[in-house]
Write a structure and sequence with these properties.
Chain lengths: 286, 268
Amino acid sequence: MQYFLDAENVNFSYMNDAEEPPVRTEVLKNVSLRVEKGEFLAVLGHNGSGKSTLAKCFNAINLPDSGTVTVAGLRTDDENNLLPIRRTAGMVFQNPDNQIVATIVEEDVAFALENLGVEPKEIRRRVDEALKTVGMYEYRMHAPHKLSGGQKQRVAIAGILAMNPDCILLDEPTAMLDPRGRKEVMDTVKRLNREQGVTIVLITHYMEEAAQADRIAIIDGGEVLMDGTPKSIFSQVETMKHLGLDVPQVTELAWRLRKDGFDIPADIITEEECVQAIAALLEKGR
Amino acid sequence: MLKDITLGQYLPGTSPVHKLDPRVKLVLTVEFIVMLFCAKNMWAIGVGALFCIISFALSGVPASLMVKSLKPIVPLVLITSVLNLFFVRTGDVLWKWKVLQITTEGRDTALFMIARIVLLIIGSSLLTYTTSPIDLTDAIENLLSPLKKLKVPVHELAMMMTIALRFIPTLIEETDKIMNAQKARGSELDTGSFADKVRGMVPIFIPLFVSSFRRAEELATAMECRCYHGGEGRTRMKQLHTTYRDLIAAIYTTLFFGGIIALNVLIK
């Protein structure tokens, strides 16, 4: 079967020339990861675990030393595939300030389409559509530096969305935002996934965000250690803690209650489930 | 503190001058400058002044701003007028003290030069008051595009301008943050001798420099992700359009130019 995003036995390393002699750092070791079309994958891992490097392999910014990466059947190591791949898999980065190019919101959203040589009228239509989708249409004439972090990040998403990509790779898009900005961005991402069937690869440090995904991959030391549904990953609380990663607060609560001998499911990942489980527990106890 | 800085001196508006195609405005401004240098006598300069006054009135830019834009050139005007006043030695002597003397012609030349410089500044500041920096960049890119055939990197230069404009507020904000961070660590930025102050800037500029490079790298990656591959095959969402307004503006400016040339010939 053909997977939408397919990384097979990918190795990636970079040379640090600043050191004498130059040091080769291996970032990805024999990584294989597949994502199906329309799937919402969250990638978890420490800083320096290689998760950003892997994401950049999926839109041909990084080319693996060995192994192959294909996006919608296109190999990233073929120079001719470069633009089609980047149009298919758009990427949003952590710092919104460093990815906005133009001095007016709508001009920035138009940037990718201008690069692709789309007709001016069609650009106008798609820019308006993308801005409406992320809820930033009324800000189209604003200067980006006057927007809040969450708004800037939504503009950055609109800039990618205007290309009509099948997949969006998000590299810690909420790391520099306040809780409200985080919610704005997450709501937008989830809506794109549910309503428009956009494949999402979300790199994050927030377990609550990862819990909303269809699937979680955990990367540590350049290798994929775990890969499964949020429930199956987060129910392994001990393993997660051993890796130095957190689980959602409600999962932790359930885990502690279980340790104290309460009969509560181990795979609780949302507040809703937690409330119901505890309510059921209290009901039984009565 | 530094955050409220405005970019350039653009005043948004909907006047006929604002609505002109930026390319036309740029070309007409150049025409105006040429016009001023063609003017040979006070009458011709007077026509230039009339042109300025009418254009300013049409633009709705307050006159106080016109005066404000002249402030930085006061020293230049003074130096030019003093030089002309004392060093033009032809004509009747009006005043003499040792080697210094003022002649009628010196006085006239000085006044003429002052008028020319003042009009030059007012006319060109009208362009920057009524055109946003981004429109101006687009106009420059568009007007210079024939130079691409001569391998002049016109698109790249315009892109650099745009990015510079985009990052000025970001970097100003960052400078502010770094200054506060250094102050919090006890560095004294506002006190001491001039040399001390200059030395105090080093711990501000180095972090600013380092972070600018990091930003540049991230921006380059982000641009690549959005399929940027130079100016080739690129389209623009906003197309520049010339309208009947631009034609009227061109005729209006050229009429004044004609007037100046006529006055040059008629009044010797």
